[in-house]
Amino acid sequence: MIIEYAEKERTRKLYEEAFEDPKEFVDYYYSDKCLDNRMIVSFECGEVVSMLHLNPFSVNLCGTVVPSYYVVAVATKKNMRRRGQMTRVFDKTFELLEGEKIPFIFLLPVDESIYSWMGFEKICDFSKDRIPSYDEIRKKYDIYCVRDDDYIRRMNKEDELRKLDMGEVLPDNPVIMAKITNLDAFNAAAGMAFTDEKEALYWMKKKRIYICEEV
To answer: Where is the N-acetyltransferase domain (predicted)?
Structure first.
């Protein structure tokens, strides 16, 4: 059964099994970041065996602010892998977001090949060095996450954890991949008339993109 899940704490066991993030970061993630995120999960015998989290962000897309999601915590229990669980979770996610007219979503992969066959493509490198000045970001970049009060509070907390060596564990050379989830909504926001997702992603790649969000 694939559902959108509300009992979020019950996914923590799988998170801790799948990822090597410090306990302090996981405590922060589940007590704060999960307050307003969404989880798409697969159940077997009442247990969460596969999941992904959709963490909401408002993204400036070349002058138009659109709703988007950062896909994180993509995981399947070891004994349930290679059974199509994650494919079904992503299929449900794409169905939901297309219906909600979400233009695109993005993620930071451990391995690009895991996601490329689903239509995700690299659009930029992940920015390890955070730019503190929002005005500077808005002047220099075409695509970036909008900073509201919650964003700034979480950004400061994540910076604090990183300085204590308690931040999220990232790949050595992190990149950002994106997928178009509703082409009509993307075209409306971008003021374009792309006929397929690849064309839209190619256009994105040519823009100046700044993404430094860990989760």
So the answer is: 1-144
